[in-house]
Amino acid sequence: MYGDDIASVLITEDEIKAKIEELAELVAKRYPPDSPEGDLLLICVLKGAIFFMTDFARALPIPTQLEFMAVSSYGSSTSSSGVVRIMKDLDKDIAGRNVLIVEDIIDSGLTLSWLKRNLSTRNPASLEVVTLLRKPDALRTPVDVAHVGFDIPNEFVVGYGLDYAERYRDLPYIGTLNPAVYS
Ligand code: PRP
Ligand code: MN
Ligand code: MG
Questions:
Q1: Can you give the residue ranges of the Phosphoribosyltransferase domain (predicted)?
Q2: Which of 52, 53, 73 to mutate to test the pocket of ligand 1 (most atoms within 8 A of CB)?
Q3: Ligand number nearest to the C-alpha of 161
Q4: What are the residues whose beta carbons fall under 8 Å from the beta carbon of 91, sequence distance 6 or more?
Q5: Ligand 1 pocket check: which of 46, 76, 81, 111 to mutate, most ligand atoms within 8 Å of Cβ?
Q6: Domains of the chain with bracketed CATH
Q7: What ipTM, to 2 d.p.?
Q8: Cβ contacts of residue 42 below 8 Å, gap of 6+?
Q9: Helix ranges, 80-162 (H)
Q10: What protein residues have CB closer than 5 angstroms to ion ligand 3?
Q11: In this predicted model, what pLDDT tens digit does every residue of 26-85 receive, in sequence order?
Q12: 36 CA from centroid of ligand 2 (Å)
């Protein structure tokens, strides 16, 4: 539907689905149901993680509550500026809760390391991260991530929530972007 903009499909819709089921099973084991901390709190990092969050929450066999936070470091460029801005903060206090940050991708790691530092000052009982994608070769800061779906090459990818200049989020798969689009 985007003409020749997508150079190749990196991860298919079926592969995403299978991986989410696998991740959900692993994550659920770490959070006993009926814990004194209450239901697991999933924090979706808008906008990129929106589709992953909704599919992941429904695949998890434990009760969860959903919160949303919007941060932005990219603007419309293809590389991270490292400057993170809160566009929308949490509505709720997370003190004493089991919190799981849900991200679509860790690229330089700057967004997530900033976010983890920010959220840990709010005293959650636990704070972990699940990300669908990670680019090991692009990391610029070490960030501890409990659960990773796919490690991918250092190429610009779009789809399943990931955008270039706000486009392509609605693709059901992860694809590489034709360089002609951004050059
Ligand atoms: C993208 C992506 C991650 C972050 C990863 O978000 O969704 O949140 O960048 O990059 P990093 O590891 O280099 O920090 P973006 O800032 O583009 O906002 P969006 O989710 O609204 O697209
Ligand atoms: Mn994002
Ligand atoms: Mg983006």
A1: 18-164
A2: 73
A3: 1
A4: 67
A5: 111
A6: 13-153 (3.40.50.2020)
A7: 0.98
A8: 53, 56, 57, 64, 65, 66, 67, 100, 102
A9: 110-120
A10: 74, 163
A11: 999 999 888 899 999 999 999 999 999 999 999 999 999 999 999 987 555 566 666 788
A12: 31
Retrieve residue 28's tokens.
């659920």
- Dump pLDDT digits (tens) for 120-157: 999 999 999 999 999 999 999 999 998 999 999 999 99
User: Does any ligand 1 atom lie closer than 6 A to the CB of residue 113?
Assistant: no
Taking phi over 0 as left and psi of -120 to 50 as alpha, with beta for the rest, 57 belongs to alpha
Residue partners of 117: CB distance under 8 A and separation at least 6: none
Per-residue pLDDT at 77: 59
How many whole angstroms separate alpha carbon 122 and alpha carbon 1? 43
Active site residues: 107
160 lines ligand 1 (CB under 6 A): no
Joined together, the tokens standing for residue 106 give: 């860790």
Q: Are strands 98-106 and 40-46 parallel, antiparallel or unpaired?
A: parallel
Distance CA 158, CA 113 (A): 22
